[in-house]
Design brief:
Blueprint lengths: L6 H24 L6 H14 L3 E2 L16 E5 L2 E3 L13 E10 L2 E10 L5 H19 L7 H13 L4 E2 L5 E3 L6 E5 L16 E4 L2 E3 L5 E3 L6 E3 L5 E3 L2 E4 L6 E2 L4 H7 L5
Antiparallel strand pairs: 1-4, 2-4, 3-12, 4-5, 6-10, 7-8, 7-9, 9-14, 10-13, 11-12, 14-15
Helix pairs in contact: 1-2, 1-5, 3-4
This protein binds magnesium ion (2 copies).
């Protein structure tokens, strides 16, 4: 069931999502060779709790009933999503996708950004730029009167035209009082197909794009998803509210990109 949100509810969603953006900016300040994803996770959890919110990912169960141990999903290089923070230092040339969720005033925030660690190969930087651009192509279609397939079509065609892989097994989602609500928001689709988009729908749009083949596998930890060919993957996510004419982006990369300066993707 899809819950349409009132303007007041959308403002509460925005507050939770802006906190995600500010949390990812705290992470951005720490990204450099030698830092561990567990260190990033600790700072993020403290920042979220200090701001009166709860990290929604922590304790969230996978289909096997295992609770996620972290505040952040940190997915390095060939890892696509759901990487568990650990004690392995990031290296020069790595990329790390950081996904963060908050629960504040009864509403969820959910946003992700892929960071470069030091100097990253140009083809990988290009993948990151294309994934972020594909996210905005999807968002352009999150407007009243379009259909869900228009979002997926926009993401898919932008990425496949550049010979990137579009992960299909994991998708975006409705978001509100629950982190994952209906509808599922695939990053592929047919133009003009699927659920009609209406004012007040709130969606997390999150392309997961690969440098090589789109096929993925799950690591034995039952959380981490990586590319089968071990080529890099990128992940950018915004939470948006469907409006007439133009989507309202409730999360923000501005805080992150102020920190990154000319290193922003
Ligand atoms: Mg997310
Ligand atoms: Mg999400």
């Amino acid at each position: 069931m899809i819950f349409l949100k009132t303007d007041d509810e959308i403002e509460l969603l925005r507050q939770s999502n802006l906190l995600v953006g500010r949390t990812l900016a705290e992470v951005a300040k720490m990204i450099k060779p030698g830092v561990t994803t567990r260190q990033l996770d600790k700072v993020a959890e403290e920042f979220i709790r200090d701001n009166g919110a709860i990290p929604t990912f922590k304790g969230f169960p996978n289909p096997f009933g295992d609770p996620f141990p972290g505040t952040l999903c940190t997915s390095v290089n060939e890892q696509v999503v759901h990487g568990i923070p650990n004690d392995i230092p990031l290296k020069d040339g790595d990329i790390v996708s950081v996904d963060c969720g908050t629960f504040m005033n009864g509403f969820c925030g959910d946003s992700a950004y892929t960071f470069c660690v030091g100097e990253v190969a140009p083809e990988t930087v290009a993948l990151l730029k294309a994934t972020k651009e594909a996210l905005y192509k999807g968002i352009e279609n999150a407007v009243h009167g379009k259909r869900l397939g228009d979002i997926g079509y926009a993401v898919q065609t932008y990425c496949e035209a550049r010979s990137y892989g579009v992960v299909r097994e994991f998708v975006g989602h409705g978001i509100g009082k629950e982190m994952h609500e209906d509808p599922a928001v695939p990053n592929y689709g047919r133009r003009g197909s699927g659920t009609l988009l209406k004012k007040g729908m709130c969606l997390a749009i999150e392309p997961m794009i690969t440098l090589g083949d789109r096929k993925i596998v799950m690591e034995p930890d039952k959380w981490t998803i990586r590319t089968r060919d071990r080529k890099c993957a990128a992940h950018f996510e915004h939470t948006v509210a469907v409006r007439a004419g133009k989507a309202d982006i409730l999360s923000s990369f501005d805080f992150i990109e102020q920190v990154l300066g000319d290193k922003a993707i």
